[in-house]
Specification:
12 helices, 70% helix, 2 strands, mainly alpha, two-stranded antiparallel ribbon, globular
């Protein structure tokens, strides 16, 4: 149960974030969600400093995060639908902002504090615990009814396959990609701060939108493309906040003086903060 409880809370936060995202998209548009998502690193930076032992971001980092938020806002302002929405459309995006910020900070907390033997632990726990809420969301969205209707139509038409082979292949490919995202996500989260991990997600979305605009027919205006480019500039300028400096007292154990095992390396990542990393350090032979 000591593993289930923390990951259960994380799964609840993740599921709530998915629900808020779905409601946001149903009442507003993608641009609105991007703007609020771009504000998340600002809030997570505060959580980093208050709860996760990080220093406050430097002026350079605050400026970089502000540039990203302004770039996302500039891109959204080029969309007419975003400009025409009323304030009532921003309740769910605002709730989404706070939920995903908590999720990012809490995810870093459990990867640092819960002693998992392998990287597969967080991946398996979050996926297994995530089944019930995802099945519930499918029911709420009418997915089962649509599946039943589609299968019935295929039976009535006398089609050979109840499920299209192309769809099955895409589903299988999606499972492989999703598994890779799970492992790479938790590995990345163990290496960087919560704010840096959140920022990576924002830049990922900006790059996705930018590539989509450059490839497909529905091109954004030049102002929109420049705004997204501004987000990328902010991502380059951002610098991760280091861990707070802690005085390492000399402790006497059985007459032998031992120093604290926890220490911070030059780039501010605390080696002892992540159990997986700590074990890899301790397992190195003494030279």
């Amino acid at each position: 149960m000591r593993f289930v409880k923390p990951y259960l809370m994380y799964t609840v936060a993740f599921s709530l974030g998915v629900y808020c995202n779905m409601r946001s998209l149903s009442l507003s548009n993608v641009e609105t969600v991007i703007v609020f998502r771009a504000l998340a690193p600002l809030l997570v930076s505060i959580f980093d400093a208050v709860f996760l032992g990080r220093e406050w971001p430097s002026l350079r980092s605050w400026g970089a995060l502000s540039i990203i938020a302004l770039g996302a806002l500039g891109y959204a302002m080029t969309d007419e639908q975003f400009q025409s929405q009323g304030l009532q459309a921003y309740f769910w995006p605002t709730l989404y902002l706070f939920v995903i910020s908590f999720e990012m900070a809490y995810g870093k907390k459990i990867i640092s504090g819960v002693d998992m033997k392998t990287l597969s632990g967080p991946v398996l726990y979050t996926n297994l615990l995530g089944w019930p809420p995802m099945l519930a969301f499918a029911a709420m969205g009418g997915e089962y009814e649509r599946l039943k209707t589609d299968v019935s139509t295929r039976v009535m038409n006398g089609e050979e396959h109840l499920f299209p082979p192309t769809g099955i292949l895409l589903l299988f490919f999606g499972c492989i990609v999703g598994t890779g995202i799970g492992y790479s996500g938790w590995f990345c989260r163990s290496k960087v701060s919560a704010a840096s991990y959140t920022l990576i997600g924002v830049i990922n979305k900006c790059l996705t939108v930018l590539v989509n605009l450059l490839i497909w027919d529905q091109h954004a205006s030049m102002d929109g493309i420049l705004s997204l480019s501004l987000c990328l500039v902010g991502g380059v300028l951002y610098k991760q906040a280091p861990m707070k400096k802690v005085d390492h007292d000399h402790v006497e154990v059985g007459g032998v003086g031992t120093a604290s095992k926890r220490r911070a390396d030059d780039d501010g990542i605390e080696l002892g903060s992540t159990p997986l990393i700590e074990r890899s350090v301790q397992s190195r032979p003494n030279r």
